Amino acid sequence: MVKYKRILLKLSGESLSGEAGQGIDPTRLSEYVNQINEITELGVAVGIVIGGGNIFRGLSGTSEGFDRVKGDYMGMLATVINGLALQSAFENSGKKASLFTAIPMEPVGMRYGKEKVLDCLSRGEVAIFTFGTGNPFFTTDTASSLRAVEIEADVLLKGTRVDGVYSTDPEKDPSATKYNEITFDDAISKNLKVMDQTAFLMCLENKLPIIVFNMNEKGNLKRVIMGESIGTLVKI
Fold first, then answer.
1. C-alpha angle 220-170-223 in degrees, rounded to nearest 5
2. Strand order in the sheet with 210-214
3. Count of domains in the chain?
4. What is the pLDDT of residues 1-12, one digit of tens each?
């Protein structure tokens, strides 16, 4: 029995780049699609928000002289490129996936709308959400919490290269302590960087649990869906 019937999976753009650190790694893309297909076969409805940092990160562009608003739009366009790559990989695997954009971009993708998404999920398709929230100054973390609440997901899954939430950055501090479970209040009081503050508070206000886990380990997504203690659960 699966524990979560409808999920929102947040993937960073950097995760698609694999070891290269930029661009799209076809092997990593295929691995992710295989993991997602594995849980859709169990009847799980899946929505995905994808970042664009492997191509362009809006905030970092300001240090290079880009206007912040234009830089953020460039970053949002990068998420569409990643979304198209995901959609193509799903179709190559024999799985139907629909691409939604936060602003009109036909024929690239469909304009986001809750009813269209729910119809897509009811047919067993994967829904891919791109172009963030459609607004500058908001991250794809915020887009993921917003879409998760809108589609009434049971949980927001943040797939990363780290196996959970730690007291400090485990890649910099070997003595960092991992939390298997933590409440929203404790995460706030400890100033833990689970997601950006806007996204985190949206999940808190809507009582939406978050699970942070290592998506790069094959089989982890299914383990999370089945209720195994993988990664870190952030709960009320």
1. 10
2. 110-111, 97-101, 126-130, 45-50, 6-11, 155-160, 210-214, 232-235, 181-183
3. 1
4. 899 999 999 999
